[in-house]
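cache lookup: miss for this entity combination. No prior model stored, computing from scratch. Input as submitted by user K.M.:
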Amino acid sequence: MNFAELRQQLREARAPLRFTGLGSKDFYGGALQGEPLSTLALNGVTAYEPSELFISVLAGTPVFDVEALLAQHRQRFAFEPPRFGGEGTVGGMVAAGLSGPARAALGSVRDHLLGAVMINGAGELLSFGGTVMKNVAGFDVSRVLAGSMGQLGLITEVTLKVMPLPAAVVTLRFEFEQTPALTAMNRWGGEPLPIEASAWWDGALLLRLGGAQAAVEAATQKLGGDVIPPEMAGAFWLGLRDQSDEFFVGAERAVAGGARLWRLSLPSTAPELKLHGEQLIDWGGAQRWVVTPMEPAAVREAAAKVGGHATLFRALDKSPGAFAPLSAPLAAIHRRLKASFDPNGVFNPGRLYADL
Amino acid sequence: MNAPLREPGIEPGLDRQARLRQLVAALSPLLPAHALLHQAEQTTPYECDGLTAYRQRPLAVALPETEAQVAAVLKACHRLGVPVVARGAGTGLSGGAMPHEAGLTLALAKFNRILSVEPLARTARVQCGVRNLAISEAAAAHGLYYAPDPSSQIACSIGGNIAENSGGVHCLKYGLTLHNVLRVRGYTVEGEAVEFGCEALDAPGLDLLALVVGSEGMLAVVTEVTVKLVPKPQLARCIMASFDDVRKAGDAVAAIIAAGIIPAGLEMMDKPMTAAVEDFVHAGYDLEAEAILLCESDGTPEEVAEEVAKMEAVLQAAGATRCQVSEDEAQRLKFWSGRKNAFPASGRISPDYMCMDSTIPRKHLATILLDIQQMEKKYGLRCANVFHAGDGNLHPLILFDANDPDQLQRCELFGAEILERSVALGGTVTGEHGVGVEKLNSMCVQFSAEERGQMLALKAAFDPAGTLNPGKQIPSLSRCAEYGRMHVKRGLLAFPELERF
């Protein structure tokens, strides 16, 4: 198939299509529907200039390959996208909109998205944004593709901001129960300290410092705590990022047994939630992972009560809806926006909401 | 898709006076008498924003004091089909808040309260009319500040910053408005309350906040904003480096980034601009230099010392003829004084100036500077240049005399050529000032008809009747056809060789 044929296929589709890369996030969002359309042939880096701090990549390119290239130039995706099973394509990474441990300090995949090329329901090949950081020409259409779950169109190429690797990295460990850990994460977040990531689980708080050598050394002195050996610390953050560590492995087992894994996105200062089940906290308190058999409505209510929302991340049955329901005016805008990109309603239907 | 937006108005055929009577009759019961202006002497002060070359008196101006009044006014205008143009402090430079001749200007200046500052959560909840700098002032007691700092920050409002996705001199390191806002509350064109984003770091569904930020008041009316606050750096130091060749200065910018350094600020001035500002502020700038770079580091004292040493080494290696590091805060501010006064300094050496705002990839800084020198000859006008070099954002100031129609016309052509050249180099026609009415034609060059059609359809998803700030930011298809300039292809170059997959 060539590009003209792909555009024609999208323009003429009248039955559901589902865009797929390596399938590593098939579990995420609403249930899969429709005929698969693979992006894997769209493979390759189309532009990369380290001194311009951006990289342009075709959608079907494995994230792992791109990050290996960046590492050769001592650069990285600062939003640390999760790679489930070590896999995932750049298109899926943007469409799912998920970010890893450094998100609270360094920004999300959306924050780093500079531009995107896509095909809409009219079969039009459209380019939004660009390669420069400051760009306010027209609506910021590329950024709404982050987290759109492919419901607006087929992403064919993206341009992302890349950042230098920090000169020095140190991980510190503290023993804290949940409430004092939340207080500490928020208090330190308000001080000029080079904190890149923080996570709490099972009585231990881990902080990752990253930046200039002198700054990391000074912060290590100031904060105290135990310095974790680099290999052990690296493995911890990698496991947290790719959800392959002990907590998430246990969560998957519990999900197979009928429990649910929830991602709660909350104000970082939200108090300790007394929910039945295991909790892991990262993003300085702003993201809380909960494995629980509790009723979905009760979990959603607990998150909403403190000003956040709950995503049903992994479950055998996603019928309660993967994402928290929208207010009436937002739902109306969603429906009209979807129709403006995909008038026939055939792109990845139901991945965000059942009626979308 | 691609449906033309309906031209709004009360009833086709009504004259201005009849429209005004109908609008005043509908709004009078909703607002205190002093909050509805419709006499010419009352509405004339609202006829333009910071872009004074374009003026339009609105039908009326409403100055609501409560959210209930905003909702009621929007509902009434929606019922009547009257266009609504929201307005903050009116400091915008692209005419985004220029009134609509048959519309209501919704002036939100009275929404000027800081509702809360949460030091532990590092957020502030403020009304849309609060000034940018006032947020940082309110947060200062907690060692925090609001990072985006457009040069109008003393006067500009946070609501306007949302509309324009404002930047500033520190956004290479700290991001734009988009990166520093968690949530906005406001109203749809129908007058329904709506929230985009959330007090958490993300919200369910499509990321509509990312669309609303930078939408120039075309998608919703914002009344309240939750911003992120960040810890104030303990120390900042600035290096002032001179170069005898603009190419060397441009290469130095790329070399700093390539060395893995993200400076807190990285600015460039060319020789004509340096002469103009030195004459104005007497900061001791090197008048022999073809280009001057200001390169700032901030953070802890240890961090700054390490980074300044690295930056100096890179600048020396790139061929700097002079390198001076600020010894104290007073000296740092002196280094910056010229850069901060580039606009008034230009105003002293020319009756008028037009400020451009395109962004290009950093590596082309010297190329465009040399191109602009050629254009100066072509159009017979002088141009002084200041760049946010770190993020490739150019502010060429074309000097002219507006009383001479021929100069004005040459100036406009000069500006349009800079923008087209920027797009051709892989950049964009506006980095931080917005499209407004000023750059509508240039949008035809940057985006294809299909891309503009999708943007207009996106607007219609938020505003089906097309009455929120109509006619701004996205040019109509017919306007581009009349402008007649070719769309410059960007971003799609990868595909021709990708024949099969």
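stored under new cache key. Confidence is low (pLDDT under 50) at residues 1-9, 491-501 of chain B.
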